[in-house]
Write a structure and sequence with these properties.
Elements: E1 9-10, H1 15-39, H2 51-71, H3 77-88, H4 99-112, H5 119-122, H6 136-144, H7 154-189, H8 198-204, H9 220-241, E2 251-253, E3 270-272, H10 275-281, H11 286-308, H12 323-343, H13 345-356, H14 371-392, H15 396-420, H16 431-439, H17 441-444, H18 446-460, H19 467-477, E4 482-483, H20 495-525, H21 532-551, H22 558-580, H23 588-593, H24 597-653
Antiparallel strand pairs: 1-4, 2-3
């Protein structure tokens, strides 16, 4: 049922829930840079179920809400979901999603330019004054530490950060609108399982006012699962502080056994045990988990065969994935998105008609925003991105091409998270890697390549903390917020408007607070004295690649385009076979993930999860499978809370370099 305005109520969007969520967002915007850059410990925002969000959420339930229950004024289940979503959506911004790359990358060219690399003559003339800080002396202090008696030069950073924030906000607007357009198809029609939202849902299930803890925390299997990673990480944490304590090894380099030709091309080959990954794999279909690790070795087999035939097998620039595999995966991802859009063509037509012709064919009252707003917002966000890029010095055609390729990539990657439960995602290519094989780098030009070096490194190179998958997971969770019918008419102050405003504020708070945090850390400690990746390797990478491209222009490559075509065709074939034949064992997502960085890190844990689930289903049946679901969710929670607890211990002890997650 709907009211006369066709508007549903998003229950739980209360003032105290919004304020609590925003406080949690601000806290994480400080804690994340401290963890990533200063302590250099476990990255608490580098995946799509961020450790920081889960840790704060559990502390809220165990601490604050238990106290509120005793006082008779607890947060409701819907309020807790609102708090969780407000923290989840911007969680990656202080880390790899924006700030941790943005500020060091902006400061990188003036600091790392030398007479030998010739950056100043190669591309400095293509960098607008508003794009990055211009005072080289103050930039140097960011990397080397501020001398005593000087104040942190915040004013120098205002203009470039404001300009880049406009670009970022336009991108977040476009991603949000894409998620709204995709939600009904993925959630209601295809019924994707969204594995990463299962943990908060289970934690909050059957939450009652007169019961201090939910049944999830009282389940014996949850406690057993929780104890396994907690005990192991506790022992390894003690080993970090007291080396005489034995260590339980969770990392094995299998590549040392493959050091002769042609097997030496199978590098890196790591077996890493992530208990949280094993837990999430238990939630996804066996066909999918099998395909994920199978296609990882499928691409390695291609590399070995190519090496044996005398072919040159090299990595894609800046990535650990082989070039031939990266382009196959690119073609597969493009095909995946084309097929997904084709499947939802009738829905897209209805959405368009509902938005612009005001027909009643489709109901959007339970969406985050109306379909009209979503389509107009997508157009507006894209227009701002293109205009910003053109003003910065890019051509109209190149800027549009890059943005559209990035949209396709993010839709595919978001699908990986929503359907496949990938804890973190990464593509082994940037948009320019797909454009240059078709055109050559000389046609693109130095000005385009210079601005692209910034955009791709900040937003498109490492998308494991990107905004879109977290927003889509929040839309899935918001199903629990929709309440019908309501008696009030839709107005500017409806619950939907308040929820949208709260998310917008959380994004802006996360940006501003994390900017300040990173600038303070850099000037106080000297970035070059801290994280090697965030302040040394990462910030130089795009400009090393740029200078190499300008010195040695790349020609168009039919070889790479052919691999893209092979990847697209094979994806079509897998999808066709899966749709027609029940016995077909391969899932398209497995091929699309290939041997990307996430699979290099996670394949072994996925393999273990696949074996355990297969055995439980084979010998115990569906009832035993359902029963043991709690044990595996407990493993996820145990590993995540261990990461947060040890980070606090490391901060108090002043220790750095202690990580329980390698990704």
């Amino acid at each position: 049922m709907e009211n006369s305005s066709g508007t549903a109520m998003f229950h739980g969007v209360t003032f105290r829930a919004i304020v609590t969520g925003l406080i949690g967002t601000a806290f994480l915007a400080i804690a994340t840079p401290v963890s990533d850059l200063l302590i250099q410990g476990t990255w608490i925002a580098c995946c799509h179920l961020p450790i920081g969000v889960v840790f704060v959420f559990v502390v809220l339930i165990f601490g604050i809400n238990v106290l509120l229950k005793k006082l008779g004024i607890p947060f409701t289940q819907q309020e807790l979901i609102v708090i969780y979503c407000i923290m989840l959506i911007p969680a990656g911004i202080p880390s790899l999603g924006l700030s941790a790359y943005l500020i060091p990358v902006l400061a990188s060219p003036p600091y790392y330019a030398t007479v030998e690399n010739e950056w100043d003559t190669l591309f400095f003339q293509y960098i607008p004054d508003w794009l990055s800080p211009t005072n080289h002396r103050l930039v140097r202090y960011f990397y080397e530490g501020l001398p005593g008696g000087l104040h942190i030069p915040f004013s120098m950073w205002v203009k470039p950060l404001v300009m880049w924030s406009i670009f970022a906000l336009a991108m977040y607007l476009s991603m949000s609108c894409l998620c709204v357009i995709l939600r009904k198809q993925w959630v209601e029609r295809e019924k994707l399982i969204f594995p990463l939202v299962q943990l908060p849902i289970e934690i909050l299930k059957d939450d009652k006012k007169n019961v201090l803890l939910t049944p999830f925390f009282k389940n014996k299997l949850v406690l057993i699962g929780f104890g396994i990673p907690t005990i192991i990480h506790a022992i390894n944490g003690l080993h970090f502080y007291i080396p005489s304590v034995p260590q339980i090894n969770l990392f094995y380099d299998l590549g040392v056994y493959f050091n002769s030709r042609p097997w030496d091309v199978v590098q890196p080959l790591w077996a890493i045990i992530h208990f949280s990954v094993i837990g999430f794999v238990y939630l996804i279909p066996v066909q999918l988990s099998f395909s994920l690790w199978f296609f990882y070795f499928f691409f390695h087999a291609q590399a070995v065969i190519g090496r044996a035939m005398g072919m040159q097998v090299t990595n894609a620039t800046g990535y650990a994935t082989k070039g031939f595999a990266a382009y196959q995966m690119a073609g597969a991802l493009i095909a995946l998105v084309v097929l997904a859009i084709w499947r939802m063509k009738p829905l897209l037509i209805d959405i368009f008609r509902s938005a612009f012709y005001r027909t009643n064919k489709i109901d959007d009252s339970d969406e985050f925003v109306s379909y009209r707003f979503a389509l107009l917002g997508l157009i507006l966000g894209t227009s701002i991105l293109v205009l910003w890029s053109v003003i910065a010095g890019m051509s109209l055609i190149v800027s549009i091409s890059v943005i559209l390729i990035f949209y396709v990539t993010m839709i595919a990657m978001t699908r990986m998270v929503s359907e496949g439960g990938m804890l973190f995602i990464q593509t082994p290519f940037r948009p320019s890697d797909l454009i240059i094989p078709a055109t050559g780098s000389s046609i693109i030009g130095a000005s385009n390549l210079t601005i692209l070096a910034y955009q791709e490194m900040i937003f498109m190179f490492d998308i494991r903390s990107s905004y879109m998958p977290s927003f889509m997971d929040s839309l899935k969770l918001s199903e629990n917020l929709v309440e019908r019918p309501i008696s009030i008419r839709h107005s500017l102050f409806s619950s939907r408007f308040k929820l949208g405003s709260a998310v917008t504020m959380s994004v802006m708070i996360s940006m501003v607070v994390s900017y300040i945090s990173i600038i303070v850390i850099g000037y106080k400690y000297g970035g070059a004295n801290l994280s090697q990746w965030f302040f040394i390797g990462g910030p130089q990478l795009p400009f090393v690649r740029l200078s190499d491209t300008l010195f040695h222009p790349q020609s168009a490559s039919w070889v790479w385009l052919s691999f893209m075509g092979i990847g697209a065709a094979f994806m079509m074939f897998i999808t066709f076979m899966r749709a027609r034949f029940f016995w077909w064992p391969f899932h398209p997502i497995g091929y699309a993930m290939g041997c990307s960085w996430p699979m290099i890190q996670l394949w072994f844990s996925i393999f273990i999860g696949w074996i355990l689930k297969s055995m439980i289903l084979r010998y115990g049946g569906i009832k035993v499978y359902q029963r043991f679901r709690s044990l595996f969710l407990g493993m996820v929670l145990g590993e995540f809370l261990s990461g947060g607890i040890w980070l606090i211990i490391d901060f108090i002890a002043g220790k750095s370099g202690h990580r329980i997650f390698l990704f």
